[in-house]
Amino acid sequence: MRPMTMMKAAIFVEPNRIVLDEKPIPDVGPLDALVRITTTTICGTDVHILKGEYPVERGLTIGHEPVGVIEKLGSAVQGYTEGQRVIAGAISPSGYSNACLCGCHSQDGPGTKHGFRPMGGWRFGNTIDGAQAEFLLVPDAMVNLAPIPDGLTDEQVLMCPDIMSTGFSGAESGSVRIGDTVAVFAQGPIGLCATAGARLMGATTIIGVDSVPERMEIARKMGADHVVDFTKGDVVAEIMRLTDGRGVDVAIEALGRQETFEAALRILRPGGTLSSLGVYSNDLTIPLDAFSAGLGDNKIVTTLCPGGKERMRRLMDVIASQRLDTTPLVTHRYRLDEVEDAYDLFSHQRDGVLKVAIQP
Amino acid sequence: MRPMTMMKAAIFVEPNRIVLDEKPIPDVGPLDALVRITTTTICGTDVHILKGEYPVERGLTIGHEPVGVIEKLGSAVQGYTEGQRVIAGAISPSGYSNACLCGCHSQDGPGTKHGFRPMGGWRFGNTIDGAQAEFLLVPDAMVNLAPIPDGLTDEQVLMCPDIMSTGFSGAESGSVRIGDTVAVFAQGPIGLCATAGARLMGATTIIGVDSVPERMEIARKMGADHVVDFTKGDVVAEIMRLTDGRGVDVAIEALGRQETFEAALRILRPGGTLSSLGVYSNDLTIPLDAFSAGLGDNKIVTTLCPGGKERMRRLMDVIASQRLDTTPLVTHRYRLDEVEDAYDLFSHQRDGVLKVAIQP
Amino acid sequence: MRPMTMMKAAIFVEPNRIVLDEKPIPDVGPLDALVRITTTTICGTDVHILKGEYPVERGLTIGHEPVGVIEKLGSAVQGYTEGQRVIAGAISPSGYSNACLCGCHSQDGPGTKHGFRPMGGWRFGNTIDGAQAEFLLVPDAMVNLAPIPDGLTDEQVLMCPDIMSTGFSGAESGSVRIGDTVAVFAQGPIGLCATAGARLMGATTIIGVDSVPERMEIARKMGADHVVDFTKGDVVAEIMRLTDGRGVDVAIEALGRQETFEAALRILRPGGTLSSLGVYSNDLTIPLDAFSAGLGDNKIVTTLCPGGKERMRRLMDVIASQRLDTTPLVTHRYRLDEVEDAYDLFSHQRDGVLKVAIQP
Amino acid sequence: MRPMTMMKAAIFVEPNRIVLDEKPIPDVGPLDALVRITTTTICGTDVHILKGEYPVERGLTIGHEPVGVIEKLGSAVQGYTEGQRVIAGAISPSGYSNACLCGCHSQDGPGTKHGFRPMGGWRFGNTIDGAQAEFLLVPDAMVNLAPIPDGLTDEQVLMCPDIMSTGFSGAESGSVRIGDTVAVFAQGPIGLCATAGARLMGATTIIGVDSVPERMEIARKMGADHVVDFTKGDVVAEIMRLTDGRGVDVAIEALGRQETFEAALRILRPGGTLSSLGVYSNDLTIPLDAFSAGLGDNKIVTTLCPGGKERMRRLMDVIASQRLDTTPLVTHRYRLDEVEDAYDLFSHQRDGVLKVAIQP
Questions:
Q1: So what's the ipTM on this one?
Q2: Span B167-302: which CATH code?
Q3: What global pTM score does this model have?
Q4: Nearest Cα to B175, choosing from A186, D29, A194, A103?
Q5: Residue C310: which of B98, B140, B308 has the nearest Cβ?
């Protein structure tokens, strides 16, 4: 019999090996909350970790998309009850750093001298144990725990912690306005949510770019007016044609590669904004002509997934008010015991997978 | 005797040849104004034209920084009087394009289908005859003519049409706030005005970067708290030291080269903004680490010199209210007859030249 | 036989008398366009004029919501063709005033010294002849004429010049964000469009307030999640109940009365914005408690209908992309000959009228 | 002998009675810090409390402007050391409420269901014991304690917690831009800092309004270009004259009365912003004409003093960089033992008092 103090967790052992193993259930500090995970999922970033492309410490529990139930509250945590259903954002800011105090929660560096650290708000499955486990310790619980509205299922809110928050931020950081023309490069889970976000903010012409038929189809359901297959001709020329030569107000990059970044830049109208969500693996090149030699009044904006309970509350409101249904993104389901199979499927992008749901 | 209908003008003949020649004084259309130039100057962009690096039509009159007196008003122009002293911005928008109507005046494309064109608002000395002449025809005069407040000399307002408008926009597009730390790369005329702009907007730590002693000295007068000589050690390391490891809130690039662009990116704090003013001549590289792989919540913003009479009015107010004195930037004076000498000095950056004043 | 140089027009004769009469077809100046009206409508403001509550000159043609065909272009107007179907905004800015050049087009004062004038952009049916006529002279045509996209009928775009532009601006000036809770006071044509605008911008809880059953019903179709009948109990208490005691992020006032203004203020959450669209007839009172004694970080923002061709282009894009259908707002149709009957019906708000379509 | 566990404090006993008495030195919870006060001051709000106009609990220690030394840190507080010199803002947000997480720190309601509460971030001398004492317990210390830069005296930073933060916010919330014309109504300590803030943000015409000669004189030193004595003629007419009939871009109200609020509204240009800092005691009236019947594209914005350590860091940077010296505002000095005398002088505004420094 497994002792009560141990739990199962998906652990990074070494590049190309994430395995299910046992770990002690963590102790709960005064500001923490222990959450019993009921559903979680795998992110593209986890695959980067798996492949050794993004370094984390060996022995770390992976995962940053938790849905669960409060098991135990720290002694100083108020405003919650044990047994409450909650989510926490992939990014879990402290609330007290200088970064947080100027609204830059994702770049939180609570332990640094000046309070800013690149990606410092990303802790789960990066600098502390993550959500692909039976239990998750949530630090700064009063900043990060967001109660799930009655009537919403785990799968309905499963995209909120990362995919939907990141995707929407592509449209938000692009300052999409009513009547805008927006192109979204790549219609994976984040790109699809960027498409949905642009739609929610009032864009009237939304152009999704991908080549996988299933993704192109779901892109239309999420709000794309046009879907361009980049394997069939020149995507820049096609978007210029669709916009009657004008270009787009906002281009959202949701893949993280030179080709998409460059195409996004080339289709911007003068004065337009490239809103970048991709996680890049290489240096980028800005072609002189695509950049109007620096004189085009253009913006390039990058955004890391916004977190914190207020963000989560708003995203769950989007679901509860039926503005958007993200459950079609969940294409496969696994038990936590099968997490290695889930990684196998997801990392090879087999079987039309978009997102998997994992339930301990 | 030179006929009354002819005027002298500095004309682009071919690469490396701008010469003073005669041209007809232009006819005045209903919306135009003819301005008798009293003072003008040469811009770095004009040197790009001279060298053939930026193509313009042969026979074009160069120059986009006019100070003068209204000689003749078009039949439909109201609100001005002949004999009035005026300036016009380097960028002369139409006021009626879609670009203008959404506040993007510099990217004005009045003749295009959708009203946006990269740099389309820049007409003088680019797509129409410019200001280095005895007379300048100003199109859309009611949009572009700004009366000079009483008591200001030509040289006091000579920087308004371009240098000061562009330099200030570096701080403005960077959204400099009270208490910000700002670095300005290169302390040529535009960088100096960016330094002054950051100061005017409330930055409390301003770091100028250059290597020319005279420019470093004037940088302090324009508002820099620190001046870093990039030839004496690692400028990135020095700025990180000056900011106690935090980096800057806003980095302004005012040179147009890979080294400065890259250094500006490297010293940004997470969430910081690179405000780019430089005119680049080559593709740019964004190093992966300097960009936090796209996850640093950073912005890269480019701005073309804002124009139009309201912008000019505000800039002249800065001068009139003694918030800033740009006359120290005028280091040399020439008559229009000597314009070829002026180009020679300015294009070779001899004798500590910052800006020249040219008077027909 | 009516001479070719005369046209029919609805003319303000004196308070309580707007009559159909004949007027000369206006001459076309170099920057003007003559538009043959195909459809127009009556606005609540016209009723204020009719009643003598808003003063205009006797003999003025009323109306500021034109849909038509270009009959004749001024000699300096480029980019259009005669015979083209167009609309123009209720507000017709000049494009060249200082107000326009700083993005404040509706407060355009082209003839004033400094270029700002309250409501100065509103010319049709206010300071120049309006649209309830066979022909309309559009000044500054290149700023104001917006071609109608193929396939859209007159009635589909009839709300764009004023109702939809004004209503949407209520949501836009309130800076509605994804996940916001918004209340809209009064669900007349403008309030209904404010409701639709809040929906388009991503509000997830939208509360419409009215008491007329037909309006309450159409409010739901336009995007309201809840509709509160203010005649049945305390509207403030009800909205606080619906928002779980939190209040709303944005309250839009679309009636112009003390009761609605005050209720809108009372339901704001701390930090929330009151976006006011109403045309008030009396001084307003800000109750001390509703205003947190000035310490609630609240905003009160007023907006006059945005105009200009770019605005019109964007609004027609909303229609063309099927984001919104405003034709249900057109409840009655009249020929121009029957304009007096139309005023009679509309001014008495009989027969469930929302908007009338008038066709010469 | 006074026991070590007791301290002196200025306590609200009943309306018109604030007395110096003894209280236990508070216990330090895990997130708290105990600060030994070295300098503090009296605010106009404290006088409202004294007079019974703003209700607080009897027995409360008054004061919200602390300068001191960390005496003891809570067990969970990191990043500080005992003995460190610090200030805390008058507003001390929790960092974890929904209000804080959307940047609305002053309206923090950590104990409320939705995390927003009017003025909820104001705790010192309002809902918890304040700073006019030997010791102050600072809650959420990691959010609120800001180390004082080396070389700055207590009096140099004494205005940061409230006066300077509030005054600057008047300019910030008004979005003052380079070239703006700004009027500031009342040149008391907050109005003077609003004047300085407008200057720091680039306003080129700043008009201070007051009638006390000493204040009018210091207004010029803080940045006013013109000072209008409202007792000598019509202040609205005079400001319209000074602005050549145009009105101001931003009017800052820093008194809290109908006359100043109304005058501020009347002098706004169309599209201008009234930034209100005053604490009002009565309902306000918005005159119909001053409000352009709601059609002037105007904004009325209220701001409660921004707090938190990042705000304090920035304000102290303003002092340290010599952009502003607020020590001329300190006109009188008292020991804590003399606090009742200090209240007597300050509440009667005798002897040209601006601010008093009180040292335990």
A1: 0.97
A2: 3.40.50.720
A3: 0.97
A4: A103
A5: B98
